[in-house]
Amino acid sequence: MKKSTKTYLLVSVVYLISQLHGYYVNGLPIVEFDYHPYENLTQTMTELHETYYEISDLYSIGRSMEGRKLWALAISGHDAWRHEILRPEVKYVGNMHGNEVVGREIQLHFAELLLSNYGVDDEITKFLDTTRVHILPTMNPDGFERGIEGMCFGVVGRYNKDGYDLNRNFPDMFEVNEDPIQMETDAIISWLERIPFVLSANYHGGALVANYPYDNLTPEDKAEDPQQYSECPDDDVYRNISLTYSYNHKTMYMLNETQCNGNFEGFEDGITNGADWYWTIGSIQDYNYVFHGCMEITLEISCCKYPRADTLEDYWDENKIAMLEYLKQVQRGIKGIVMDENQNPIPRARVTVIGRSNFYNTTIDGEYFKILMPGTYQVEAAADGYTTHTETLTVREHLYDVTEFNFTLATEIPEPIDDDPSSAVKHDSISILSFILSLISLCFVFRQS
Q1: 319-349 confidence digits (pLDDT tens)
Q2: Which of 32, 259, 371, 390 has a beta carbon 3.0–4.6 Å from 266's, enabling a disulfide?
Q3: For 272-401, where are the alpha helices, taking DSSP H only?
Q4: Which residues are catalytic?
């Protein structure tokens, strides 16, 4: 797969325009190339929101164990404060390991790139007019405060206040996770229950690779071989979106770069299946995918976990194109609403692509979203108490050309079932009475003759 030089130059020009636009309208850019401890992070995100209040919404999804707010910034061309029917939701999550910090910082720059370019750059304007983006720079602000700048390895600051690894803390499909759910984890779970996210990525450090589900294996498979490919039903889509990031990153697609100075053997094309690298129980990406139908990958973007602040601009330059191109992948596949014959939406209907063993539960508004590669698919919509409807849908090649189809399911009319045990007796009595009356009629006829 060849690196898209054209795309890289385009987004580089976009970024240059963004910087000029920022200087022209607001003076110096809001986000500096430096680390942002909690108070600075809060101030910076507040300033971004207040500067671009018409297209942003600043909110907290919960608190950390030490009481710090988990700030998220929603960005969209209109109504950034609410979900809009059939407008897909995407997100980036950073710093769930407190000492893996680059993702925390580049998300702030990405937010400013989007905000300052809305209405200036056609591509970013189109993206924000059709998508709502959520930026959560840190899931583990407590751990970050304990991390040490310049420490490339080790676990100082990795865990939350109570010593739990947040990327081993989610419910798992393959086995029971015995660790108690932490406040930060619970905040993410509640966030996913409130907002129907379609596409996501979480940022890490210590390697250079795009990692996709599954992260775990069944206990039986693990006993046979603890390091093997754990394929999910949407493996083709996952490989594609992972390649989208790696090949739009400046170096992630290069095998020698992913070796991180000999710390790893390297990753072909800059991607890997999670369990094929090493298995993990309770990961955030598997939880997003299995329990909420949100396609999430894990992005390792720096060989050094906590590099010096003077390298942050280089990391932003390496990732800025990939960050945009990855999220744009939400604009392919199928979407629509499942409704009854009276046009009422059916929540938690099951939408299944025939031949794939998973399904998507519709939202409270009856919506479904499914990222798919170009091709023709049999898609089934089903819900308890309704007839099942299967439709042939074709997914087209180009972005922003999503196939939209609304399913209408008829209410099933159940056959009457009489559970009254006396009904059989009543039926038999009526039959005997009818027989007696027939005999009397026959006797009467014979007497007349």
Answers
A1: 999 999 999 999 999 999 999 999 999 999 9
A2: 259
A3: 274-277, 284-292, 312-327
A4: 300
